[in-house]
Amino acid sequence: MSGLPEDLRAEAAALEAVLTVATEPVPPGVLAELLEVPVERVEQLGAALAASYEADERGFQLARVAGGFRLQSHPAYQGYVERFVFDEAPSKLSPAALETLAIVAYKQPISRAQIAAVRGVNADGVLRVLVQRGYVEPVGRDDGPGQAVLFGTTAEFLERLGLDRVEDLPPLEGFVPDVATVEALEHVLRPDGGP
Amino acid sequence: MSGLPEDLRAEAAALEAVLTVATEPVPPGVLAELLEVPVERVEQLGAALAASYEADERGFQLARVAGGFRLQSHPAYQGYVERFVFDEAPSKLSPAALETLAIVAYKQPISRAQIAAVRGVNADGVLRVLVQRGYVEPVGRDDGPGQAVLFGTTAEFLERLGLDRVEDLPPLEGFVPDVATVEALEHVLRPDGGP
Amino acid sequence: MPYEVHLDVFDGPFAVLLELITAQRVDLYEVRLTDIVDGFLAELARREALDLEAATEFLLIAATLVELKCRRLLPGGDDVDLDEELALFEARDYLLARLVECKTFQSAAEVLAALEQAAARSFPRRSGPDERLSPPAVDLLAGVTAEQVRAAARKALAPRPVERVAVGHVHDDVVSMHAVYDELCRRLPGEGRTSFAALTAGAPTTAHVVACFLALLELYKQELVELEQLTTFGELAVVWQGGAAAPAGGTAMDDYDELATSSPGPGR
Lengths: 195, 195, 268
Prior knowledge:
The complex is a heterotrimer, with 2 copies of chain A and 1 copy of chain C. By secondary structure, chain A is an alpha+beta fold.
């Protein structure tokens, strides 16, 4: 944490840690609560970190996007990043992505937490891909505590599958889901941490 | 890029940029191709970056996991990150499952029957759980009669354990009970009751 | 989170024996065998369903222990069969090797758990590229049909496998005690003096041999046969005592068959 005022360093490192794992821009309010500091302090930390990354000519930057802070690749290295992303870009959905898409399609509206509960693993990354591709979108918020964002399929998804309405999906008739799955879908288990 | 040798800085920044957008550990070979440098250079860059993050007491670290480099939050900030991601840790593996996992990890590739022989009981159920968790997968078939499916550990397993390669597992010899323990066991089973 | 893998803690018999030995920290000479047997029985009772495989392994281990203890208690004789002696040593070495191997992997498993715990303190970055990088306009759903989406949904929502030990194959040959008893009653009057080995020479499975033995015991109880065994593990002679005609029916064996049919079978 060289280049940062002594008194900011520990908090700045904690902020870095959180931004490292975040998949969406994190609002300063959320960070303030996590770090148990005033929002102004978060803004100060963010600005100091952003400046130090810039001064250090790091490959990433701390950006203020969509009402939150985000760690992102520095535009100076866009070329490398693009080649990396496009080389790795799949030409079709992974089985995990297709499963997540199917869960959303049949159980919409559904929260991130519910999807994770059904799949048994964190589905954030996969969900991001689906949102990015325009197959899935936020359609509302849950009434429960935390007001989790609920996701549903898009018109684009229906169009790609050649369907008019979600109801035209082939029925899951005669199919008994897992007890754990039913439970997962019935309860909103925890607040969805997303912004 | 303070703290890094001058000649490494530009390449290190490019590497940082790529790791910022990666969702899986990135093998050195892939990075070498992207940066158009030899693999040894990538290893050198990775080690230098990892050391500089640690020296700077950053909130993230550069780890060598499952055959690649990845950015991850520093363990020191586990508390903040945990509260942020709300991620339920995957349910813990039972001692039986862990033991089976250890057998597969050290004896891979290994068949169902061979696992059962070591454990003294049928291991099908435990094995299914491990496969479902993504820690273990079929890796081939035995040449012998019956062509039994052989199992091995996955990249996911390495990631979960924070290991780079299977070879990095602590050597099994280190776990063989010490002479005193073996003697104690032997004593219990001694038929003549002699000293 | 409702998703949890239902793991029965299922230790192999070697793990249990190891635990018994290390927990008691005593030598076989001092420990009462009933303690070990009670330990095994408690372990078996703790398991909800009868598991033949585990029970058999337990039995084998218990038998070996009993044998070892007997050897220790009885003064050694010169008449000990060398083959028997070697077999016992082999059984003992086998047990010892298994215990050592078991302990080795138990320790390894502990270290794996510790590694996992340490690794779990760091969280990987998984954010992926941001929106400044628009992915190439490839239709990832190309060729995907609604039917495939349904199949994926079924797969994702399907019950997860619950850990279960299959014992189906163990139950495969059901031997009717009744039939074996009747068969012996038909056969023995014509045989005069015969041996257990001869009677079971053509037995297709171990279960048939066991059934034959139980049926002989029942016949012995009814005083229809005389049994003679001169040496331990020696030949078991069987002599019919019931006269020329076979008895009317082996109703006594119904108890056995009832037992056999009421024992928990595999869920097929």
